[in-house]
Amino acid sequence: MTSPQPVTELFWAYWKTKTMLSAIELGVFTELAKEPLRGDELAGRLGLGPGAVGDFLDALVALDLLDRTGDVYANTPAADEYLDAGKPATYLGDSYLTQCAGLADDLTGVLRTGEALRGARTGRDFYADTYATSNSVRAFQRDMTALSIGSARVIADSFPWDDYRSLADIGTSEGALPGRILLRHPHLTAVGFDLPQAREGFEEYTGALDLADRMSFQPGDFFRDELPSADVLVFGHILHNWGLEEKRLLLDKAYRALPEGGAVLIYETLIDGDRRSNAVGLILSLMMHLEVPGGFDYTGPECQEWLREAGFRETRVEHLDGPESMIIGFK
């Protein structure tokens, strides 16, 4: 008889995620960031009934989100950094709540119709709607930080930044990627390039990192305007939003903006070459169909070919964090 394990693992993956989201919504991690607490003390502060709290908190221990010493609970380092609402520079909880609310419900309809259900006719329509209000801009920026922060830390350590003096982050959102790099490499300066509506969130985020003297915001539209000049240009979760023509246009612009010896760095949840193993990359490509008509994710070799067509002399692909990888092209 065939094992049901592949099916049951996905079932329990849903419930693991649901358990984390409930803890975020209840404020578990924010409360424990103040001080470790016994289970009954935490339940009292959060207004929780006694019945299921013990199993709930111990499930969070099993998920590596809480530690328990005796009957006292505390955040793990990862939960303390990313799930405590009192740390706005690194908090990702609200982003996880909004990203998981409703988006997956649209997938069946998209598969039946072949059309996005968010009302966007093109990718530009999507971004016009997203950047229409200050609240929607900030929510989107937090989502992008949640998506990028793991890769940002690896890129800060793994790329040869000692060989360069400046970088420009294209579609920077809050500036999480250049922020993490500059914290690690004090000789660098950075420009965050994005639509004008992103300025406030960018300056708030980089100010919280105490990097305002080394990072500046440059407003612009990367389809209408030329890209900033820097030693390294970074595209983080940008190319997958667009069709092939737009992808090639942005890489052509990057080549023109870079000095000789400069580099372009592209990081995404790349689809594996056989389209068999990186489920997250394929699911994210599905999400592009939900949100951004024309957008799609791609493999490393596909992007390397686009880079060569743009004129880059050398390219390579490197794994980053979890399902993410980066492609580097040198001019």
Automatic annotation (TrEMBL):
* O-methyltransferase C-terminal domain sequence ranges: 123-313
Q: Which UniProt keywords apply?
A: Methyltransferase, S-adenosyl-L-methionine, Transferase
* The keyword 4Fe-4S is assigned to this record: no
At the top level, the lineage of the source is Bacteria
Domain named O-methyltransferase dimerisation: residues: 9-83
Q: Name one GO molecular function term.
A: O-methyltransferase activity
Cross-referenced Pfam families: Dimerisation (PF08100), Methyltransf_2 (PF00891)
- State the Gene Ontology BP annotations: methylation
Q: Which InterPro entries match?
A: COMT-like, COMT_C, COMT_dimerisation, SAM-dependent_MTases_sf, WH-like_DNA-bd_sf, WH_DNA-bd_sf
- Any idea what this protein is called? Tetracenomycin polyketide synthesis 8-O-methyltransferase
Organism listed in the record: Streptomyces himastatinicus ATCC 53653
The organism's lineage is:
Bacteria, Bacillati, Actinomycetota, Actinomycetes, Kitasatosporales
